[in-house]
Amino acid sequence: MEIFILKTAEEASRIAGRFVNEAIKKNPKTVLGLATGSTPLMLYKEMYTACQAGLDYSQVRSFNLDEYYGLDPQHPQSYRRFMNENLFNHLNIDINNTRVPDGLAKDCAAACAQYEADMKAAGGVDIQVLGIGSDGHIGFNEPGSSLVSRTRLVTLTPQTIRDNARFFEKEEDVPRYAVSMGVGTVMEAKTCLMLCFGANKAKAVKGMIEGGISQFNPASALQMHPHTLVFLDEAAAADLELKDYYRWASEHPATL
Ligand code: F6R
């Protein structure tokens, strides 16, 4: 893991955005893995601002991490709708090349297997954008998810249902299930870009970077990933024991 501690989430998102945009400049057929939630919104703005300034996203393909199970893609809280509104509608990407797991699939296991096969056929994910849950989840891989899990139907924890209730009229409206790429699926991305902002992520960030590798904290699997860049703001980095070293190392990178 390479850890970057920036003063603000804006600054971190700018640097992460530059990384994604440079990759697309070099390889216009980049395959992106994408996340929803509040964390990547500024990164997505960096991406569509670059696109509107001329960067070509027309050949980029994408696979989203997850989708609520039981929500129609048109539902205001579906992740398909979130992605269209917060990113895809602002890019010159071909919408048919943007994939979000099917939250209405009747044969969910078959749809999940097909999603994995399609990702493989696309050459695999080049850059996977990730956020972290306050309990260490990535995608909808809650604590207890196998570190070799694949795309599948998962049961949300009461905590995640409570956390996400703010987006629905009432807590009972939050779906109880989701389709999510597995931790093992995420681990196959060539590069992972993990963004974590705010004090409520500090404990999960500490576990991810300095805790033991355990399915109790699914994000900790990234310690075994060959190329993960972690962008933190000061608040999210607050509990890290080695934060002075991470700052020093990012100012003095070992790439000569
Ligand atoms: C959503 C996803 C989740 C979020 C996580 C953090 O696609 O993958 O794991 O990244 O719940 O959410 P925010 O960014 O809203 O704090």
Description:
It is built from 8 helices and 10 strands. The chain has one domain: Rossmann fold (3-Layer(aba) Sandwich), CATH 3.40.50. Helix content is 32%, strand content 17%. The protein has 256 residues and is α/β, with parallel strands linked by helices. The strands form 2 sheets. A 7-stranded parallel beta sheet has the order 1-10-9-6-2-3-5. The model has no long low-confidence stretch (mean pLDDT 96). Bound molecules: fructose -6-phosphate.
Short synopsis of the structure:
By secondary structure, this protein is an alpha/beta fold. It has helices at 9-26, 41-52, 79-86, 108-121, 158-164, 183-186, 202-210, 243-251; strands spanning 2-6, 31-34, 61-64, 66-68, 98-99, 127-131, 152-155, 177-180, 191-196, 228-233.
What fraction of residues sit in β-strands? 15-25%
Task: Choose one word for the global shape.
Answer: globular
Largest sheet: 7 strands, parallel
CATH topology category name: Rossmann fold
Unreliable spans: none
CATH architecture: 3-Layer(aba) Sandwich
Whole-number tally of structural domains: 1
How many whole angstroms does the radius of gyration measure? 17 Å
Provide the CATH top-level class.
Alpha Beta
